[in-house]
Specification:
The chain is of the alpha+beta class and 164 residues long. It has seven helices and four strands. It is elongated and about 60 Å long.
Length: 164
């Protein structure tokens, strides 16, 4: 797995914005990651790191002028951010069940849609779960693991075929 850094044209006060697409992880467990490093140029010409972190694709598009190929990559990696290389969301069952049990603490269905990357019909079925074990069974019945794998494979194919 690899890391690709895309330098993009900044539309803001930053002189350079690097968008990092990563398909590697710690402990030998690869995962998808979309992060940004923002730089400002000092009077001496040196670039100074002034921040960044995990920006969503909306923020990246507001701050930069990416190519269409970059936009496709950013959107794919944004959806898969912190998912395993197989596309499974981080702690799919554990976090998912927590979100289900605490909808007011988050953004209700918006958080669930984002976490499970599912459609309305799938979400209604997921919301029927009464335990972690039940949620895992429902995810398997809905074939979510296959759906997530297909999304991951598509993102990896975009990355493999990317050229500036």
């Amino acid at each position: 797995m690899s890391t690709i850094v895309l330098n993009t044209v900044s539309k803001s006060e930053y002189d350079l914005i690097e968008v990092n697409l990563k398909t590697s992880g710690c402990g030998g467990r690869p995962y998808f990651s979309l992060t940004v490093d923002a730089y400002e140029k000092r009077r001496n010409g040196r670039l100074i790191d002034v921040g960044g972190g995990a920006w969503n694709v909306r923020q990246i598009l507001e701050e930069t002028a990416p190519t269409q190929a970059q936009v496709r990559l950013f959107r794919a990696f944004d959806a898969l951010h912190l998912s395993s290389i197989e596309g499974e969301p981080m702690y799919a069952v554990e976090n998912g069940f927590y979100y289900l049990q605490n909808p007011k603490e988050f953004r209700g269905d918006a958080t669930l849609y984002n976490h499970f990357r599912c459609n309305k019909q799938q979400l209604e079925r997921i919301k029927d779960s009464s335990s972690r074990e039940d949620l895992k069974k429902i995810l398997e019945e809905l074939d979510m693991y296959t759906q997530w794998k297909q999304e991951a494979d598509k993102a990896l194919e975009l990355l493999k075929n990317y050229s500036e």
